[in-house]
Amino acid sequence: MTGGETLSRATDSGVAAGVTGVVVVAHGGKSVSSEPTTAWQPAVLRMVPLARAVRHALRGSGAVVIRPRFRLRGWNGEQAQPVNDLAGILDGLGHRFGPVPIVLIGHSMGARAALRIAGHPAVAAVAGLAPWLPAGEPVGQLAGRRVLLVHGNADRITRPQDTWAYAERARPLADVMAIEIRNADHAMLRRAVLWHSIAAEFACRAFGVRGRTGQVAEILRNSASDPHRVML
After folding, report:
1. Which of 99, 157, 164, 230 would be a feasible disulfide site paired with 186, CB 3.0-4.6 Å?
2. pLDDT at position 217, please?
3. Residue span of the structural domain in which 106 resides
4. Is the distance from CB of 153 to CB of 181 less than 8 angstroms?
5. 37-46, 124-133, 215-224: least confident range
6. CA of 198: how far to CAs of 5, 8, 50, 110, 175, in Å?
7. What phi, psi does 196 have (nearest 5°)?
């Protein structure tokens, strides 16, 4: 699998031998749009360095990282098109690789889609980065999953308060870790290295792979003992 694949192509090539898990990195978009996605849209490009960081952290583990594109840029109300897209790719990955664990890492709209589809039987863990989580977003599908929610307190596109409220509703059902990043914006350009480190360490922990040492690793290691969000 290569980065930047469309969802329809992401399950059509390559071999499954030796694959022990899959990370799916899901990009952001718009609340309403029927415009097709392209490889050069900013929301898609933002995931390139993040996927690279996760892939680097997991090197030698047998886990692969894919960075598919949604078919359309928009969520589009009740259609929730990105959720349907992710459902298709998860089913395709199961056919291709068998019953390996899948970790979802999504940004903004992609985070909403990843969290919404987390009840899929192949999903072991899900991370939402600067997620778009309107009031009333369901949490029941998170039962038994490892969940990471990360938001910057300088985000002016999606609301950190919605993320923390979502985390509180999900905690009775799932292993939820919440991290607030000081001065971080929605695009994850400010403090980008920290965003990438958090995502990479989360993927390592989800697969039981030895990650890095340092503050991020320590925080994620102790997540179960800290029911409140952590500020970095």
Report:
1. 157
2. 83
3. 21-231
4. yes
5. 215-224
6. 24, 29, 10, 17, 16
7. -65, -40
